[in-house]
Amino acid sequence: SLYSQGLDAPISSNTDIPSKTVVLLTGSTGNLGSQLLALLLSNKSVATVYTFNRRSGTPILHRHRERFRDNGFDDSVLSSDKLIYLEGESWEPRLGLADDVYKKVWLKFL
Questions:
Q1: Would you say 69 and 61 are in contact if contact means Cβ atoms under 8 Å apart?
Q2: How far apart are CA 47 and CA 105, in angstroms?
Q3: What is the pTM assigned to this prediction?
Q4: From CA 47, how far away is CA 62, in angstroms rounded?
Q5: How many CA atoms are closer than 13 Å to the CA of 52, on its beta-carbon side?
Q6: pLDDT for 48-79, tens place per residue?
Q7: What's the per-residue H, E or C state across the chain?
Q8: For residues 74 and 68, is the Cβ–Cβ distance under 8 A?
Q9: What separation in angstroms does the CA of 45 have from each of 17, 26, 67, 82, 106?
């Protein structure tokens, strides 16, 4: 289709990221989000990646693995110590996260 041409091409990073960077990535179970997640997890300058996705009846790790496999990515990186999965709803107070989790995440980005 006209509007999706080239969207299947892999994303590459030509930009330096400051060391010890903490990232909050939304939509990491989608096509673009999974490509960004793969890049962030492979980047040595990124210390932590928080993924925030909507709740679903399917476990979050399963959703990520499925998308990674669809895209031909190595899904073993999904068990990285620097990856933290968050599920919630953007319209809920504190994004639907438990108070302690919300405070911890919020403090990382102040």
A1: no
A2: 14
A3: 0.81
A4: 23
A5: 16
A6: 999 999 999 999 999 999 999 999 999 999 99
A7: CHHHCCCCCCCCCCCCCCCCEEEEEECCCCHHHHHHHHHHHHCCCEEEEEEEEECCCCCHHHHHHHHHHHCCCCHHHHHCCCEEEEEECCCCHHHHCCHHHHHHHHHHCC
A8: yes
A9: 6, 19, 24, 11, 21
Measured CA to CA, the distance from residue 3 to residue 88 in angstroms comes to 30
| CB distance 58 to 90 below 8 Å | no
- Please give the single-letter amino acid code of residue 99: D
pLDDT band at 103 (very low <50, low <70, confident <90, very high): very high
Q: What is the dihedral of CA 55, 25, 50, 45, to 10 degrees?
A: 160
